[in-house]
């Protein structure tokens, strides 16, 4: 089974082509250029370099969230566009689970996948590394650094921190209890290989989706949406106060 995977959830951008567990090719770019400019040329160059046509691909996979709102929209839109003409099945993969796959070989430790969510929060999920695969300990969530620190302290197990929020997590929580280690730099950031590997598990479980149903999973409202709701609540309070005078 050939899987074409896209990863645009944060600053780094990558694409990968896998055949089952085998990585055939991966293009990775972390220079701050806009994903809308770099993603499709990277994808086309990779397929051309492998001598593979889009028709030869069985599954289109993408990191569907959490992550940058703009980045997720770009990745999901690209995946839908690649899948739709050939009616190919799709996999919308948890960004955090995909990250955990890159360090799942580190037996004996728990994997703490983190992305900076701003406002003293991180997007996080925790996993156990078991027989080379990540086993979930928590769902994906937005959680405060203080709450996460308390949770890890209660765990008492060594933690491998992975993701673009690893430095933030390490600097704020190191010393809270368990042993903290950041994943090596070449395994720390989100990669399309992790997306492909998580997508393979979905294919095996029969939980793939269609291009029509593929959608981002933001895990919380955007800042613009939060500000709009706050304005609406403020206006409603003002209207209520005016009617009770």
From TrEMBL:
Q: Which Pfam families match?
A: TsaD
Spell out the InterPro entries in the cross-references: ATPase_NBD (IPR043129), Gcp-like_dom (IPR000905), T6A_TsaB (IPR022496)
Basic and acidic residues bias located where?
Answer: 225-239
Location of the Gcp-like domain: 34-148
Q: Which GO terms describe its molecular function?
A: tRNA N(6)-L-threonylcarbamoyladenine synthase activity
Region labeled Disordered — which residues? 225-245
Enzyme Commission number(s): 2.3.1.234
Q: Does the keyword Thylakoid apply?
A: no
Keywords of this entry: Acyltransferase, Transferase
Name of the protein this chain belongs to: tRNA (Adenosine(37)-N6)-threonylcarbamoyltransferase complex dimerization subunit type 1 TsaB
Query: Which organism does this record belong to?
Result: Pseudoflavonifractor intestinihominis
Source taxonomy = Bacteria, Bacillati, Bacillota, Clostridia, Eubacteriales
**Gene that specifies this protein:** tsaB
């Amino acid at each position: 089974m050939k899987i074409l995977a896209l990863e645009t959830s944060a600053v780094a951008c990558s694409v990968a082509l896998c055949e089952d567990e085998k990585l055939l090719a991966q293009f990775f770019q972390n220079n701050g250029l806009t994903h809308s400019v770099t993603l499709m040329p990277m994808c086309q160059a990779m397929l051309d370099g492998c001598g593979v046509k889009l028709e030869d691909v069985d599954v289109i996979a993408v990191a569907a969230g959490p992550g940058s709102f703009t980045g997720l929209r770009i990745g999901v839109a690209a995946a839908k566009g690649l899948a739709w003409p050939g009616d190919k099945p799709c996999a919308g993969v948890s960004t955090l689970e995909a990250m955990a796959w890159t360090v799942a070989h580190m037996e004996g430790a728990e994997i703490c996948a983190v992305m900076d969510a701003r406002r003293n929060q991180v997007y996080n999920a925790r996993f156990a590394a078991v027989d080379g695969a990540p086993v979930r300990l928590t769902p994906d969530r937005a959680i405060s650094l203080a709450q996460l620190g308390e949770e890890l302290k209660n765990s008492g197990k060594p933690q491998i921190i992975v993701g673009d929020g690893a430095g933030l997590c390490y600097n704020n929580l190191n010393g809270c209890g368990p042993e903290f280690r950041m994943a090596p730099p070449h395994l720390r950031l989100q990669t399309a290989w992790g997306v492909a590997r998580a997508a393979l598990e979905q294919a095996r479980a029969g939980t793939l989706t269609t291009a029509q149903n593929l959608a981002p999973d933001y895990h919380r409202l955007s800042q613009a949406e939060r500000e709009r709701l706050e304005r609406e609540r403020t206006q409603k309070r003002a209207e209520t106060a005016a009617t009770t005078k």
